[in-house]
Amino acid sequence: MSRPLVLFFALVLLAGLAGYGVTRHFLPAPATDAEARHRWLREEFDLDPAQAARIDALQSEYKPVCASHCAAIARTRDQLDAAIDATTRTAALIELDRLKVICTEATRAHLQAVAACMAPDQGARFLALMEPRVAHGENQTGAPALDRRP
Questions:
Q1: Quick check: 111 and 41 in contact, CB under 8 A?
Q2: Which tens digit of pLDDT belongs to each residue from 15-40?
Q3: Which residue ranges make up each domain of the chain?
Q4: CATH number, domain 36-134
Q5: CA nearest neighbour of 115 among 107, 99, 101
Q6: Dihedral of CA 112/39/119/131: which sign?
Q7: How far is CA 125 from the centre of its chain?
Q8: Angle between the 86-116 and 49-82 helix axes, to the nearest 10 degrees?
Q9: Tens-place pLDDT, residues 88-114
């Protein structure tokens, strides 16, 4: 390789490193999904720091509840898939429906608790946005995300 070509590539590499260093120093780090969701909720519903902290606490408390509901539903779906006779299949379907009701009611109660942390008009708007997401689809797992995603 000729010396001018090596020098050119070295300059391009240095320019790239300098550009990266400048942007990392002067621009904020990209937000994680959780940070973006938190910021959206705070900004969209005009939450003050105390309201945001209460909602964060509610989310932390509800996570294991939601996880246990999802695990129970997944286990029952597995039982349904493994059912070899009509009686076992019927029992699994009944149990699956029962678990979905428990999950839906718990999630609605959680959303209402979150809405109660907000100003009344903001809480009503939050519930109008979030409650339609509570219905269980065939492949749904987890509580509805507290953000604008479907």
A1: no
A2: 777 777 767 767 666 655 556 667 88
A3: 36-134
A4: 1.20.120
A5: 107
A6: negative
A7: 19
A8: 180
A9: 999 999 999 999 999 999 999 999 999
- Which pair of tokens denotes residue 148? 């604008």
- Residue 136 near residue 103 (C-beta atoms within 8 A): yes
Does residue 142 come out as left (phi exceeding 0), alpha (psi in the -120 to 50 range) or beta? left
For 63, half-sphere exposure in the C-beta direction (CA atoms, 13 angstrom radius) is 7
Residue by residue, what is the 3-state secondary structure of the chain? CCHHHHHHHHHHHHHHHHHHHHHHHHCCCCCCHHHHHHHHHHHHCCCCHHHHHHHHHHHHHHHHHHHHHHHHHHHHHHHHHHCCCHHHHHHHHHHHHHHHHHHHHHHHHHHHHHHHCCCHHHHHHHHHHHHHHHCCCCCCCCCCCCCCCC
One-letter amino acid identity for 144? P
